[in-house]
Amino acid sequence: xxxxxxxxxxxxxxxxxxxxxxxxxxxxxxxxxxxxxxxxxxxxxxxxxxxxxxx
Length: 55
Hints:
The chain is mainly alpha-helical. It contains four helices and no strands.
C-alpha cells in the first residue's frame, strides 16, 4: 500500500480509510489511484456499470 500511496500522491492512511469505508473516495483520488496502477478510471467505471451503461 505504501508504494501505491507514493505513486498516486495519496497518503497511505487515506488509502486505508478508503478501503475500510471510513473515508469517501473522490473522483480526483480515484483517478490518481487508477493511474498509479496503469488503469484508466473510465475503464473501471465502465466495468462496474456493466451492460447497464448501454441502456
